[in-house]
Fold this protein.
Amino acid sequence: MAVSDQSPERRRESFTAAAGDGTDAPVGVTLAIRLPRDERSVPVVRHLVGDALKQVGVLDDICSDIQLALSEACTNVVDHAGPGDAYEVTVTIRSDRCELRIIDIGHGFDHGSVSAPIADPDGLTAERGRGLRLMHSLVDHIKLVSEPENGTLVCLVKHLAFDPTAPARELLLQALNGGSHPAPQEP
């Protein structure tokens, strides 16, 4: 069965398996968003993710890198995906990293042809084609799984640093500790 013929849940499972997602990974805070393939969805998801990161105390410069990389990935879906009317974004915030997965059901593409280093320095001023390079520069790890006529999964990972005084930081730690409260600190 082609991925595009599958339900969104089955497609996500198929892409997750193809991306090598470890099911034994530690728990984190996860946001899953299904968005219409519309240019207006890009700032919506960017702000939702940015607000979640800021609430748990992720430092501003790291939030900005994640938001820009996510915007690029989502813009690629809006501009280049195929006949599907929606795409999915899953964000997992862990104690040391943020993992983003953007899934579309478009045409798929040869990411090797667009992610190779630019031989022509004038290519840096091109109007199009810089999104993947920009994502590579903003995150610590990027993985693309693309199947012709079945779509693309973009996995982005960025290591995190936190402001320990952020009010919701304790909630993130509780979620990562399986709901148990951290030990009280002595005055």
User: Anything to note?
Assistant: The chain has one domain: 28-117+125-176. The beta strands are 29-36, 86-93, 97-104, 141-147, 151-159. The domain at 28-117+125-176 is CATH 3.30.565.10 (Heat Shock Protein 90).
